[in-house]
Design goal:
The protein is about 35% helix and about 10% strand. By secondary structure, the protein is of the alpha/beta class. The chain is globular and about 55 Å long. InterPro entries: AB_hydrolase_3, AB_hydrolase_fold, GDXG_lipolytic_enzyme.
Amino acid sequence: MDRPQPITIGRKLAAVASLAYAKLVLIAYWIISNIIPSWRRDPKWTLRRAVGFRLSGWAVSEFSPKFQDICSRDWSAEPDEKELRRWNVGFARTGELQGPLLGEVGRLEKETGAKRVRVGVYWYGPQDENGRRDYSASPGERILLYLHAGMYVIGSAHPSDMSSFIPTQLCNFARTVPRVASVEYRLSSMTPNASTHPFPTALIDTLTAFRYLLELGFSPDNIFIGGDSSGANLALALTRYLVEEESLSLAGLILFSPWCDLTSSHSRPGMSRQIKREKDVLGSAIDPGSYSANALLCGLSPENPYISPACKWILPSFGGFPPTYLAAGEMEVFLDEIKTLKSRMEGIVDGGLVYDETPGAPHGTLTHTYFMEPERSQLITRVAEWIDDIRPTPQQPLIYI
């Protein structure tokens, strides 16, 4: 199966019933069970934040895995002009990726039989005089290639997705990156008999989008690569391929709460995956052996630098990686593996590493639209300032808007 099957009326009704149950029963229960500050996960939290935390955890760990088909968009869908105007975004589709892929990724492409497709790209930022029909780079223009979250099994680059806060706000706040290209990469799924779009399918799609930016006239050293959660994992993999196999220099790498170890090397007692499970929205949703991990791997060992760069059992190189901004939340289950990633990248990546840990924040601070303010706006502002402080190569002038 290469494209999603139509969603039946029964599935839609089941999803509506589940949402109604959450709204009418669970939220009322969470309000009552958090009404006294000492009953909350963190007594300093407001009631709004405590209830929002529980709702997000339910959506990630229960609703999304059960209704993966409803929580995702068809990667092959084409938004019409009315939809694009409504969301104030552009959309284009790349050509198919040309030429052989090298090294480990090329080998896995052949082994898995991954197909190459024309990939959808949503464009965030100001319109041009032609109404976003010409996406060519201006001389010296810098851009962010963004990869959305979703455990590799849900989510979308579409502006209705929670992750869209990141590309929308970064092109508003970063004066030197006026546009963001967000990739509608194919998602993994699993049935009893097969896995659809396992690794390296999403990586091939992001490579396709990167080559598309080159065709538009963007220089590699003017391209930032960024992602959130599983999208940050994918951003790390894309950067690794471009640095190690194509010897490219990039503008920068932005990692929000990266999922960077799919093995169990960070699952021992006393580590954040255990002690923060009750404090984070993820819980056990993407533990080793979870649906998300199995759908992505399809039997492939996760002890691979492209998949688990923070795994304690391997020692991947980060030589040649660009300046990196690494953000985490103090309460997230990924905290220990993110700190392992930090220790491996410090002093190695070209241009240095900035590590930003938000106190009291769960996983995915930037995707929690209504209960993680002002922290999420403060974080996006710091990242935008970091982008603007990154100096271009001498032959590339810095353009402000």
